[in-house]
Hints:
By secondary structure, the chain is an alpha+beta fold. About 35% of the residues lie in helices and about 25% in strands.
Amino acid sequence: MPETESEPWEYFLSIPNDRRAVTVCRRTLRLVLTVHGLIGVADTAELLATELVANAVLHTKGSAMLRVRWSAGVLRVGAWDADPEPPETPGQLANLLDAEAGRGLALVRACADGWGWQPLSRNGRRGKYVWCDLGVA
């Protein structure tokens, strides 16, 4: 086990309101997880980060931020955006499989060990932070 895996760590990636930022975040996350010996959760973490960052970029205006944190065997992936309104409550994924939109947070809820959101200001701007947790055995 790499030494850094037992010690907490955290990364932040500021991103512009640009659809290409989703790919940048996904690739950066995979690199971070690989370096820290957590490649086993990379596919799921990438899927979840993609949904959270895509929501931040596609449904809000202004910059956003990806945050990745490891502590006590839990990987937390989250996205901050400049819209202080809470995210819509996700429906049941099984009911949304044929839907054109609205599956993102349902997918997060189905694949993560936990998820949530909180109001959060950044650089004097009100916004929200939507996160999900993955426990790593």
